[in-house]
Structures are given as structure tokens and as C-alpha cells.
Amino acid sequence: MDRRFSVFALAREALRGHAGWAPQWRSPERPQPAYDAVILGGGGHGLATAYYLAKEHRASLGPGRIAVLEKGWIGGGNTGRNTTIIRSNYLFPESAALYDHAVKLWEGLSAELNYNVMFSPRGVLMLAHSHHDVQSGMRHVHANRLAGVDNEWLTPAQCKAFCPPLDTSPAIRYPVLGGALQRRGGVARHDAVAWGYARAASALGVDVIENCEVIGITRDPASGAVTGVETSKGAVRCGRLGVVAAGSTSLVMAMAGLRMPLESFPLQALVSEPVKPVFPCVVMSNTVHAYISQSDKGELVIGAGTDQYPSYSQAGGVQILIHTLEAICEMFPIFRRMRMLRSWGGIVDVTPDRSPIIGLTPVPGLFVNCGWGTGGFKATPGSGHVFAATIARGEPHPIAVPFSLDRFATGRLIDEAAAAAVAH
Amino acid sequence: MLLIRCPWCGDRPEVEFRHAGEAHIARPADPAMLTDAEWAGFLYERANPRGDYRERWRHIHGCGRFFNAQRHTLTDRFAGTYRPGEEPPA
Ligand SMILES: Cc1cc2nc3c(=O)[nH]c(=O)nc-3n(C[C@H](O)[C@H](O)[C@H](O)COP(=O)(O)OP(=O)(O)OC[C@H]3O[C@@H](n4cnc5c(N)ncnc54)[C@H](O)[C@@H]3O)c2cc1C
Ligand SMILES: [Zn+2]
């Protein structure tokens, strides 16, 4: 189980017909009666949180017993449903610091976890189609450079050179007027991120328990502090509870009597039939609303928008997909005759300012990491890293300070919504 | 795509409508008396339930009017729509 992956291990198994691989992480059927910290939600963010807690903060957690409780299978939520775009060129310094912290961790993650998460910094190009887009894109470039985050402005001809399938002719309805390119951005393999963190956390003693839904939060009647959780597999005591439940966060926090500044919306994506390598980078367009890359299997991976109404259906309207495909066909005429193979939806938890919430709550012992909405995959390592420190120290990690829940009362919003309209 | 019954125009496709957030959130009568936390509650905190949910819609590409609806957020099925001031479906 704790066998490390290496070129020698691969060669050995190749010769033995791959009969020697063992399960990659321990999978206890049931939780222990008590833990020092319980992480609710086995998506990438929850698993990363557990990994960094075990790796960097065990000493501050008493005996250091840690569990991840997942109601379905790990990575079955938005982690396994997203289009895996990674970038850090957000407008505000607070966001740039948070997302760039993540990108720096992505850069060494496969080695850190000894698991190939297939991080591929192939460049993320965000297109501008109007005068306003150009101004706002250039403003992002300048703001990012001041914050020490790479981002550069490309002319239409440079966009075409960077992404040859792109139609840059001036005659189309929304001509390309330029683009902001973050070369360190790219994609990673979503499942591998969940599996790699689960494997590494398990090797450090974390219990990763699947098919274990949290159905209640128990609290001390006098202090109100968290004392444990009720689950579909029995009661579990814990001193600290970290909620990382994405689209289900409002439901979980209601178990502790809290109302959240969140709404949950369906967000869809789809993939095409696989074709030979044709698309060298990631392209996003907020104005016509489409984003696209090509997976290593050869499928075009295409992201659509959210539906307009809150829902937990994990399915969105077909008109949303059609809208996106129309935009893709106009930007990339060579894809007009491709067939789409599959589409699916996830439920994303959206905050009023489209920035995440990471930190403490009014309930002692209860911590929350949510509100990543349509764009949290890119933050997975950084989110887990700063949230683990927050849980261990009982106070926000410096990068997490601006993302506190009480910013909605103080008014210090981090308004990436107005800045970017769509964020992935 | 949802099929939505405008209380004035009848059944129309969702693309004629704009969702307008959770219903029955009354603006506080005297905002100046509210604490910051209470004001945040009014502005930002939402029930976001998985189940029956009351919401506002506006028939922007039709009569232009606001109305309320009750919908189940797991099935997206409507229990009914009703005009402002009317009672929600039982
Ligand atoms: C279609 C789509 C495309 C996207 N594209 C991008 C993109 O290109 N780039 C990007 O950065 N982001 C993207 N995102 C957003 C990204 O997927 C999420 O922000 C991120 O994956 C959230 O990770 P998470 O670990 O917090 O959530 P999840 O992976 O959803 O994990 C939460 C887990 O909590 C579990 N849970 C919930 N309730 C309970 C309970 N009561 N008890 C136990 N467990 C519970 C769930 O089962 C789930 O596994 C996209 C999302 C979607 C849906
Ligand atoms: Zn009408």
C-alpha cells in the first residue's frame, strides 16, 4: 500500500503483468468513535485539507487523529465534474495571492504526493471581443504584474499563433480583439488530484471513509461548541469540524443553525469524441461564454454556464449547452462537425461576491471552506493548505484572512464578480 | 429548460423569464436600526434549501411582471406560481 511509484516500480509491474498493484489507500469501512479533526467532504479541497493537516499540523491536534467523511465516493462531487482550468490571474491582490499560492503548489504537486496529477501548464488564454473586454483584460494584466503574477497581453495575431484553431478574422460576430495569456496556467487530471491526496493522506494515517454521510452536528449545550457529528455510519466525536461540502454547504451549516451567504446552481460541461492532438492550450471567453481545452485522451473538454435558478438536480438546461456550443463553433470553425459524447452537471456554491469563504464560523470548533462556485478546482492545493493551518491554529492563515465569513457584515467584499463576470 | 406558468400569460419557456432570487425577503422597515450582522442577513444570507423553495421570477420577454413560484430544488418541479400578495400553494 505504501509502495512508492517510480520508474522501477512501473518496469517491475510491466514485467509481471501488473498483478502486484495494491489498493492505493486504506479504506476503513466505518469511522472510529472519535477524532481530533473531522473533515466533512471528500472532494479535492477536503482531501487536501486532511493531507496538509496530517503533514504539517499533527502536533497541534492532540493525538492527531484525522478523518475525511464523504457521503458518496471521493472526487464524485465537483472535483470529478469540472473542466480543470488552473490559473491565478485574478484582479484583486487578495485573490491573486490565494490562487497563486495554489499554482505554486500545483507546480510541485506530483512530486510532493508521489502521484502523477498530470499538471500541464500549457497556458490559459482569455479572449477579448469588445472595447470593454480589452480595457478590462489589460487592467488585469497590469494588476497581476503588480501583484507578481504572470499575465501578458496578446494581439489577435499573437492569439492566432498561440492557438492556431482560433478564428481571428475580423468579420465574425464577436471578433477577437486580443487576449490575456497566463503561461503558468493550464489543466490537471481531476480524479488524480482526489486520488493522490487520498493516498498521501492515508499514508499519513488519515481515515478516508466513503459512503458516510453527515446528517447532524452535535454541540455542547452550554458553550455551543462542536462535539461531534451524526453520520449514516453512527456518531463520531470530534473537537474540530472542517466543512468542505461545496454545493451542499448550506445544508450542512444549517445542521449547526447557521444561514450562509450562498446559493447552489447547476453548472454543466461536456466532452467531444476523442481526436488527435489539435488544441494546444486552454482558451476562455467570458463574453461569448465558452471555455475549451483538449484532454490527453483527445476529447475536447468544454465548459458551459450556470443555470439561472438554484437547484440541487445536478442537471442543467440544454439551452445552456447549446449556447456554449454556438460560441465554440464560431470561435473554432474547424470543430463544427464534431460530435459531443457526454454532458453532465455539478452543483456549485456561489457567494454574492464570487469569492470563496475560508475560515472560522460563529460556532466554536466549526470551520468552513466553501463558496468556490464555478472556479475552485484551480485552488485545490492552496485551499487545502491554508484551511488546514486555519483549523490547526484556530485562526485564519494570513492568505485566508480576507476570505472570512464576516466580510459580508463588514462590507469588505472581494468583488471578483464585477471584475470578471465568469471565473474558472 | 423549465416550463414556467406566468400567472398572467400562461405556460412559457424558461428563456422568456429571469430568475429574481428567493421570494418573501422583506426589506427591513427601519434599516438604520439594524446591526451590520442583521443587514448582512437581509442582503446576503439565503435558505438555499434542498426541497421546497419559494422564488421570484420576472417575465422579462413577456408581460414584464414579477411573480412568485414554489419549486422543488431536487426535481425542479413547480408546485405552482402565484401573484404578489397571493398565498403560496399549500
Ligand atoms: C461543470 C463544472 C466545471 C468546472 N470547471 C472548473 C474549472 O475549469 N476550473 C476550476 O478551477 N473550477 C471549476 N469548477 C469548480 C470546481 O469543480 C469546484 O470549485 C471544486 O472542485 C470544489 O471542490 P470541493 O472539494 O470543495 O467540492 P466537491 O468535489 O464537490 O466535494 C464536496 C464533497 O462533499 C461531499 N458532501 C456533501 N455533503 C456531505 C455530507 N452531508 N456528508 C458527507 N459528505 C458530504 C460531497 O459528496 C462531495 O464529494 C467547475 C465545476 C463544475 C461543476
Ligand atoms: Zn407574463
Automatic annotation (TrEMBL), chain A:
Biological classification of the source: Bacteria, Pseudomonadati, Pseudomonadota, Alphaproteobacteria, Acetobacterales
GO biological process entries: tetrahydrofolate metabolic process
Keyword match RNA-binding: no
Domain FAD dependent oxidoreductase: residue ranges: 36-389
Organism: Siccirubricoccus deserti
A GO CC term assigned to this protein in UniProt: cytoplasm
Subcellular location field: Cytoplasm
GO MF annotations in UniProt: nucleotide binding; sarcosine oxidase activity
Keyword Glycoprotein included in the entry's annotation: no
Name this protein carries in UniProt: Sarcosine oxidase subunit beta family protein
PANTHER family named among the record's database cross-references: FAD-DEPENDENT OXIDOREDUCTASE DOMAIN-CONTAINING PROTEIN 1, SARCOSINE DEHYDROGENASE-RELATED
Top-rank lineage group of the source organism: Bacteria
Signal peptide: none
Pfam families: DAO (PF01266)
Record keywords: Cytoplasm, Nucleotide-binding, Oxidoreductase
UniProtKB/TrEMBL annotation, chain B:
A biological process from GO: tetrahydrofolate metabolic process
Gene3D superfamilies attached to this UniProt entry: Folate-binding superfamily
Name of this chain's protein: Sarcosine oxidase subunit delta
A GO molecular-function descriptor: sarcosine oxidase activity
Lineage: Bacteria, Pseudomonadati, Pseudomonadota, Alphaproteobacteria, Acetobacterales
Organism the protein comes from: Siccirubricoccus deserti
